[in-house]
């Protein structure tokens, strides 16, 4: 019971920073609304003189793009304002406290990320219900599609957790990595389908992305939702997502061990 209570306290660290700052929540709501309106208008405008492009109709493309915006809220909390990023902890030297607590740093990181994703999921669900009621996005094609999409989205967020963890672990091995972090985050958004569905990119780009974990985070579940990936092909896609979860989990566990050797507690 004590472990559950302790885990709950860790998981709510970053969300509490948002909930106790109403202006920040208002800014999030305003930004999310503007993003949805602009993205929906953009894709409708792009399809004004065409019916189907890259295997997607206008409604499918708009649904994909809007859901990508909503899904971005799952891990888009303002940790920087609360000095809660790994980059900041490394800069100020406070990362050492992660290794002095009874709770292992990898467990603390996982619990904190879980709290962030649950909080972000509440925002995403709220936006989804509003967009669905307003007719901005289409509902899933069937109950089976909705169920498979939910499973794929869960696996995708699991993969995303490890991808973001790798980006944070990079901070242990570089002195100044602000630019590297920005480049890697841009690559993650580009290759996962946040900016545009991967189906619109050249064949060589799609082939290259197939060997990377990024498309498993978002492009796969959203493609299932809009029907770009048929139910008959879902099994292989879910297997690939699960494989990436296992591979990244083992790799990040090894990197945690390497990172621990680079942390020094000065002054005793």
UniProtKB/TrEMBL annotation:
The keyword Membrane applies. It comes from Streptomyces muensis. The lineage of its organism: Bacteria, Bacillati, Actinomycetota, Actinomycetes, Kitasatosporales. Keywords: Membrane, Transmembrane, Transmembrane helix. This is ABC-2 family transporter protein. It holds the Pfam family ABC2_membrane_6. It comes from the Bacteria. Signal peptide: none annotated. The chain crosses the membrane at residues 118-137, 143-167, 179-198, 238-256.
């Amino acid at each position: 019971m004590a472990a559950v209570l302790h885990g709950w306290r860790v998981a709510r660290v970053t969300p509490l920073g948002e909930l106790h700052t109403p202006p920040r929540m208002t800014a999030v709501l305003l930004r999310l609304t503007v993003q949805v309106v602009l993205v929906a208008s953009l894709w409708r405008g792009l399809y004004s003189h065409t019916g189907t492009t890259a295997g997607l109709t206008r409604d499918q493309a708009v649904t994909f793009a809007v859901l990508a915006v909503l899904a971005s809220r799952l891990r888009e909390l303002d940790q920087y304002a609360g000095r809660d990023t790994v980059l900041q902890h490394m800069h100020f030297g406070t990362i050492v406290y992660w290794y002095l607590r009874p709770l292992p740093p990898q467990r603390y990181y996982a619990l904190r990320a879980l709290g962030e994703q649950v909080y972000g999921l509440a925002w995403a669900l709220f936006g989804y219900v509003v967009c669905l009621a307003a007719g901005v996005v289409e509902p899933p094609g069937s109950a089976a599609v909705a169920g498979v999409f939910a499973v794929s989205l869960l696996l995708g967020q699991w993969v995303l957790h490890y991808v973001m963890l790798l980006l944070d672990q990079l901070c242990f091995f570089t002195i100044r990595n602000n630019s590297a972090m920005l480049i890697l985050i841009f690559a993650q958004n580009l290759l996962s389908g946040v900016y545009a569905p991967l189906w619109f990119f050249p064949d060589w780009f799609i082939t290259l992305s197939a060997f990377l974990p990024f498309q498993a985070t978002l492009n796969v579940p959203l493609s299932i939702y809009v029907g770009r990936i048929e139910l008959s092909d879902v099994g292989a896609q879910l297997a690939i997502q699960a494989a990436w979860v296992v591979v990244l989990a083992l790799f990040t566990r090894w990197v945690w061990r390497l990172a621990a050797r680079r942390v020094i507690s000065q002054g005793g």
